[in-house]
Structures are given as structure tokens and as C-alpha cells.
Amino acid sequence: MKILKLSFLLLLIFTTSCSDDADDKIITNSDPKYNTVEIIEADSDLFQYLVEIATDEEQPELSIACINFIYPLTIYTFNETNEYVSTTVIEDDTQFSTFLEAIDLTYSISISFPITSTLLSGDEVIINTKEELKDAIDYCLDEELILECSTLIQNCVLKVGYSYNYDNTYLGGIFIEEDGATNFTMDGILFNGSWTVFIIEHELHININLINADETGDFFNYDWKVEYIDGNSLLLTNENRELVLNQRCDANFEECSNFIFEECETQVDSGISEFILDDYTYCIFDTLELEDTFEISYYLTEDDAVNMINALASDIAFINTEDNQSIYVRIDDLENNIQYYAIITLASISC
Length: 351
Description:
2 domains, 8-stranded antiparallel β-barrel, 5 helices, Lipoprotein, signal
């Protein structure tokens, strides 16, 4: 059994992908350390990229794949000392190619390299620089490719969900994308960055680049390969890394941004509040994408949750006995007879 604080141990993964004709999404990020991000608009078919795979000095092989961007994109440019220089909105492939051609060789852009993919031929393509990216775009300028994938990644907000296979300290964080730029919010801290979507052959990518994000950037700033889990969720992978994003269009999504639930003190400076645990069940179902075949129960200790004893009454007021009290949540998948566990925090605040 595994229990992670503020992280629910459940993810329903249904692997579906874009149709074979969907060739229009790319996301990229760079590695600048400045608090600005460049975004590239993705409104047309763009971007196919080129990579040299030199397997033999005498007979080098060149693998080329189409990269199709979704415009518009917002791109941030930084100088050789990683200081912000400019913000550019890109509308099509030609403008993107011209933009990259004009950038000083010592400058960087808000796209995360390397961009990697395995072609249908089995060849691996790797783009390491903005110059190689320009070559890839130029290669596909004459292609007429139309994106038919869902616009999920550009609608509403995307909330970080739980992954089985990778530790996640950002559960409940929120991405808001607009024209290739993104804001990421977690625990009241806001980061800006680039959000670039593209397709290499049949492989959807989201390239994330949060600027001046330190450890948060270390977690998110990669070129992610993307699968649709269902019509509401995305599974992002990069090597052994895994990230789940769930779409949230409801007006009250911020109430479930994390698993810290606050109630006003019953008396000033008492540190005591009344918590109706049933009030938080919605957020658990919402964040974990649970179906009606799941049941939730609450416990004071881990052992009680595992052994399913001394369950707390969830429909009457629970009085906390300490600040930021941890409550153990047991999640039962009745259909498959599987149990998952999580921890929520009850916080008593002055109002």
C-alpha cells in the first residue's frame, strides 16, 4: 500500500489518440531563467522537423519528419545572459521560419529542447537547437496538413492529476493556455511560460517552458509526448516522466485546486473548526475522474483506513484536534475490488 500526502492514488487511463489525419499540434519550451515566456500561435498547419542521425561518417543518414504547429504561438526571446528581449506572436510557418532566421545565434527562445520522436520508419529524430527547428519548418512549408484532433488542450483550464508511475508534488496545479502562452498556478504561486503544441507524423507533443520557475520548471519544462486518456484528460510522457492533465471548465474548479480544505474558526484564535467531510467528496471525485462505481470513506489513521475500521461520519460536523489535521481517505473501486488511499488536510482559518 502506498499513501501520498495531497496525492490521490488513482488514474483511469484509456489510451486513445488523434486520427491519422491529425497533423497540427506542437508544444515547445526553452531553458531560459528569466521571468518571461514566448508563445507561438498554432492556428495553421506548421512545423515539421528535421534531424540528422549520423550512423556512418561515410554515409550519414538523414531522417526527416513533418512537424505541424497549432497557431497562434507566443515566443519569448532571451539574450546571451538569459535576459528577456522580446515577445513575438507567430501566426504561420513562414513567419516562424523568418523569425528563427533573424534571431542572433547567441540568443535563446522559450522552447524546451531536445524535441525527440520516433518516426514510423523506426528512425529517431532529435532537434536540439533553434537552427534545426527552422530547418524542420522549412522542410514542410509546402505541406497541406489539417489538424483534426480535439481542441481539448486549448479549452478551459487543465488541472494536474495523479499518475501511478511518477511522483507528483503538483497535484491540483492549474494551467491556463492562451495563444501559446500559459500560466501555471500552484498554492497561490504564479508562473508564466510558453505552451507549444505540434504533431510529428502521428505523434502529438506539448512543449512546456515555465520561465524562472526553479524546481517547478525542473518538473514541467520538457517536450512531452501526448495521448488522450479520454475526452477530458491527457497523459504526457517524457522518457520515464509522466504527467496527467484533466480539463476543467466548471466555474468552481478552484475549490478543488488541491486537497487542503479550509473552514472558519468557531471562536477567534481557537484553531478549531467544524468540517463536513461529505462537502469534500466532490473534489476527490472531480480531481481523480472517479466514476459512480467508487466509494469514499474517511479515517483518522492509516491503519484504520487499511483495515476499514472506525470510519468517520462524513455527514455530520468533524471537530479538528490539531492544526492542519491529516485525514486518510479510502477509495474503493467496487467493480474491480481494488482499494486506493490518499491524504487530505483540514485547515482551521480566521474569517
